[in-house]
Amino acid sequence: PGVVKIRIWVESSGDVREGSLIEISSGYPDLDQAVVNAIKKWRW
C-alpha cells in the first residue's frame, strides 16, 4: 500500500477547479495520475 497526497481547489459550485499531486508515494505513477483524474470529476 502507498499514499498519494493531492491538493485540490473547489469552486463555490462544488466543482473541482484544479487538482495536483503534492506527494507521490504509491510507487505506481499511472495509479497516482488516475487518482487525480478521478478526483477532478467529483463534486464537493
UniProtKB/TrEMBL annotation:
It is a single-pass membrane protein. It holds the Pfam family TonB_C. GO terms for cellular component: membrane. It is found in: Membrane. Its main location: membrane. The keyword Transferase does not apply. Gene3D superfamilies: 3.30.1150.10. Signal peptide: none annotated. Keywords: Membrane, Transmembrane, Transmembrane helix. GO terms for biological process: transmembrane transport. This is TonB C-terminal domain-containing protein.
